[in-house]
Amino acid sequence: MRRAFALGLPLAFLAVACTYDNGDAHHVLYDNPLPANCSMPAASTIDTDAQIAIDAGLGAGVFIEYASGGHYHLRTACDTTRSNATCQWDIIITPQESKTISNVLAEDLEGSDTIHPYPAPANQPDASVSYQLTAETSTDLDGVTFDIEPGSAITVDAFLDNTCALPFFFWVGDGALHSGSPSNPLTLTPTLE
Asked: What is the pTM of this model?
């Protein structure tokens, strides 16, 4: 699988624009499956106010950004232009323990795409409320924005076409664009604001 990306020039307010090319997702998932660790979460930092430029329809991915003040932005993309297929995303977003996600707003969802609270396990009725994004993405971007207490971590558990999506996570951490996660779910903690 070919992966290439380039960091753009720093923008005002320490924002970084990044681009990516993760190849053909459907080829990765169906023709050359990768071993997946979809049980233990990996942890990483996410740079505050870094941004990722996405070319809709050219590559599949779950793109996660964090902005000062506790504002998260998550978007999905697909490789539809290359594969003539759509991507079926199923993503669970869980706040750090004892933190609450608020101001959840759907972004460009259509058809059967949804964002809704995800039920806590029966044995953990006091657990923080998670949210589930389900989206059929093609040449558009589907996403969600939400708020949490500034500096709080989130855990993202993502599946693409019912397959562990760890090769398709993108975020900026420690000044670099990360392409793929060593595990799924992925826990992201913002850098200092």
From this structure: 0.81
